[in-house]
Amino acid sequence: MRCTRTALVVLIVCFLAMPMASSAQSGRANGIGVRASYWNVGNQSVRWRVSDQQSTFDISGVGGWVNYFSRISNHWYLDFSLGAIARVKGESNANTKTSTNVSVLVPILFGARYDLLPSRVSSAFQPYLAAGFGPYWNSSIAVENVVTGEEVAGEGKLEFGSYAGGGLNLVMTSWLAWNFELKYHFVDLQTHGDLAKLTSDKNASGFEFGLGLAFMWGHKRELFRVKGARVIVNDLYPAYAAFYGTYPLAFVTVQNVAGYPIEVNVQSVIRGYSERTKESGFMRLAKGETKDIPVTAILGAQLRRTTQRTNAVLDLKVEARAGGQSQKEISAPIMIHSRNAWNGEIDKLGFFITPEDEVVLRFGRALQHTGLARDSMRVENLRLAAAVFDSLQSLRIRYQRDPNIPFYKDDRVQFAAETLSLRSGDCDDLVVLFASLLESLGIHTAFVDVQDPQQELGHLYLMFEAGVDANQGELISSNPKRYLARENQNGQLTLWIPIETTLVAQGFEEAWKAGALEYLQDGVLRHGLEEGWVKVIEVR
Length: 540
Known about the structure:
This protein has 540 residues and is of the alpha+beta class. The chain folds into three domains: 19-220, Porin (Beta Barrel), CATH 2.40.160; 224-336, Immunoglobulins (Immunoglobulin-like, Sandwich), CATH 2.60.40; 344-538, C8orf32 fold (Roll), CATH 3.10.620. It is built from nine helices and 29 strands. An eight-stranded antiparallel beta barrel has the order 1-3-4-5-6-7-8-9. Strands 11, 13, 15, 16, 19 and 20 form a six-stranded mixed β-sheet that branches. A hairpin with a 3-residue loop joins strand 2 and strand 3 (54-71). Helix 4 packs across helix 7 (427-440) and helix 6 crosses helix 7. The longest helix has 21 residues, at 2-22.
């Protein structure tokens, strides 16, 4: 007996736990309910008697309901109900006289329902209050059969009434729930004649008890709304992968509609290109607050292997929590460009600088152990830079003009290792190569971007930090026009040396002279720096 009780308790707990686990935020937008009920209209009792001479029965108050409900706000639902409550009374005796009276009360009710449980609470038990009004149609049919024939009489009457009460939904799944309901009906039937057979008291007000099922569909009760997703970066360039880890690819606009504070997190992944999901982290949204949440991405090796433009999809999952959890998913198309693609923005060219590349590192280490360094140079950075540049000359690396690229296509930039392998490159490629080699040796570099309004095409060359204070120019050259003073990354005023990298075939000295002359003429004498068409962008 004890084992039986224990098993019964376990079954009951499992039955209750199952819907509680599956019903979080289960308030669907629409539903249809079917319910059996008992309403003892007019306080009639259920009686029957059977004997050899006579049999009688009187069954009152049994019926059923069908109702449709639709959510209009977080807690309020509109409710339409159609019911039928019957009373059947019959009598027969030994003289073969029989009589049957069927009376039916049909309420057609319109009302509202209010869910009592806060939507932040995840529970299988969903109590509510309800009230409404509508017409109650009362009809009666009497059939009497005496030996000689049959007599049928009927009558109907329509009265208005109202109801108030409450109920409980026991949610089994997101679309199915048990429904228990208790109502009190306020109605005066004004019965007359045969219609009075339904009730001995024209005041039919009373309690009604119901049990049934509710079938639900549509949107669940919302904690939040996604009001929009704005993609900021429609074109993804593989070289900028580190940049995309901190710069927003998109903004998701989320509004709290729960009526209380919630926490929201946005997960993002680029299909086929992300190493793993990136999360914004849960952030608090006050009641009614709308917030733009930035979206970033963690990009993997597949992105850096892309050799041509291709379409991709940014998948976003917005999740909210406040007791329970709710989530929504949206997607947006983006374009993945080639690994060598560059959109022409000079501040993005630094992403092609690869001082940590193994080929670049080996090249720098080899220089430091050769006799290429010039003993006459007293400045270490200048000595190393000259050695690097002259070694590129000895490798027969050559400048190759930029190809004619249509305006709608990307420029193409080679990484340093690629240029070392190909032995040629345009001005962008050679700047990237020389900067990567110098940065690998610990020498800071900067791009000089020239967009001369008198020239159809722009130009790019390099400058590097000599590593001496601004008042020590004599250590570099007796000609002060061959160097310039500017602040380095630490805010110190130091000397920098311009290099025209396209002259790699002519050696370091010629490249230095040409770079210094360009900077003097375009940047200073023609006021390019002042007017903004000459810009210096430090590699960081």
